[in-house]
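User: Just a sanity check before I run the rest of the batch. Below are the structure tokens for the first item. I only need the designed sequence back.
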């Protein structure tokens, strides 16, 4: 039963990845269709992030009141509804409006399922969870690439993605009996602690705990992945001179790399310290970004972008897993919610900031911008490890 439930959770996490990658890939064509400037993709990202921050900060109370299953199911409903609505957007204003439920749904399911898997399963299974997010991020740009090559609209691609979300929702709904068994308070003392109202800690209390704030900084500046997802296609089109279909195909290499990285590192996640895995990945990201600056052929771009995504792969699940290793179970759900909110604040601020900077200078600043974000993120994760003084 436990393995079957984990498989359902993996499938549900695909629903998180689908909308995360679609906007950045569709934007080079979408902005022309709705009459919006290229640089305002960051504004849409801000709206989505507002919703995710609100959902993440509320996750501790939502889990205790409704349970993981109910919160996750409603989140999937919000996301497929939002995708259907976005497909019919006729203006930038309507796109912004329809992005609100997308953010709320994504933030809730991200926090509750991350916490559930971190509490009940191993580091390897946490990596696989985020690999399935990567599956979602591969599907979306792949569909868009096929549609662009055949001359079809991004709107049709959004409808297809919404239908996929509906199928995932049906699968998740059928898994309800499995959750009843897993979430019985008397079967797991950790769940019992998490359901006690007196154990609800305020965000102010949590942020003051040793190591929590630098860990949150690490999550906030992990936005270099979000910047890549949102702006890589535009960088390839306007910085490297590629056409939209080629850029979409190349963008899919990022998601393929992320997924491959999470699957590959899953097999060593229980035997290698998370801090070491994170550091090695950060070094590889730096080398990939330097290579991206000088890449001048399609073959080289495919390789560099894949390696860049592969390097992103292990960082996020390792950071989440560290939370349940560094902190007691009754704190972890609140801290993970706080970390997720910081991650989404980073996604809210840093991608649109890049949009403003690139419109002032050029799309060629893309790799240099990511290097700066990487430096700050590395400082946060390193300081967290030093402060917590605990091996993972």
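Assistant: Here's the designed sequence for the first item:
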């Amino acid at each position: 039963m436990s393995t079957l439930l984990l498989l359902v959770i993996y499938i549900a996490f695909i629903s998180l990845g689908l909308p995360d990658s679609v906007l950045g890939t569709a934007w080079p064509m979408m902005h022309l269709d709705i009459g919006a400037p290229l640089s305002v993709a960051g504004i849409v990202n801000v709206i989505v992030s507002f919703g995710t921050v609100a959902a993440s900060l509320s996750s501790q109370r939502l889990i205790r009141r409704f349970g993981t299953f109910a919160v996750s199911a409603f989140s999937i409903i919000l996301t497929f509804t939002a995708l259907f609505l976005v497909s019919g957007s006729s203006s930038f204003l309507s796109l912004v409006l329809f992005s609100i439920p997308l953010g709320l749904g994504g933030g809730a399911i991200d926090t509750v399922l991350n916490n559930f898997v971190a509490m009940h399963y191993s580091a390897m299974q946490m990596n696989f969870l985020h690999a399935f997010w990567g599956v979602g991020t591969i599907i979306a740009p792949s569909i868009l690439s096929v549609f662009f090559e055949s001359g079809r609209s991004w709107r049709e691609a959004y409808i297809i993605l919404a239908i996929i979300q509906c199928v995932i929702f049906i699968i998740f709904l059928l898994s309800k009996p499995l959750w009843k068994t897993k979430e019985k308070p008397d079967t797991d003392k950790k769940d019992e602690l998490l359901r006690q109202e007196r154990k609800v800690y305020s965000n102010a209390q949590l942020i003051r705990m040793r190591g929590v704030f630098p860990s949150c900084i690490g999550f906030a500046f992990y936005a270099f992945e979000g910047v890549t997802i949102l702006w890589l296609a535009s960088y390839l089109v306007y910085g490297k001179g590629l056409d939209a279909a080629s850029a979409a195909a190349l963008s899919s290499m990022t998601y393929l790399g992320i997924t491959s990285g999470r699957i590959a590192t899953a097999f060593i996640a229980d035997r290698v310290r998370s801090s070491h895995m994170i550091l090695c990945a950060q070094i590889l990201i730096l080398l990939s970004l330097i290579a991206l600056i000088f890449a001048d052929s399609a073959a080289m771009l495919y390789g560099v972008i894949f390696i860049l995504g592969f390097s992103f792969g292990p960082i996020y699940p390792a950071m989440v897993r560290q939370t349940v290793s560094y902190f007691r179970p009754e704190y972890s759900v609140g801290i993970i919610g706080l970390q997720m909110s910081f991650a989404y604040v980073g996604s809210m601020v840093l991608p649109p900031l890049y949009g403003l900077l690139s419109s002032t200078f050029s799309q060629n600043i893309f790799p240099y911008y990511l290097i700066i974000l990487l430096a700050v993120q590395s400082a946060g994760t390193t300081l967290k490890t030093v402060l917590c003084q605990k091996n993972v």
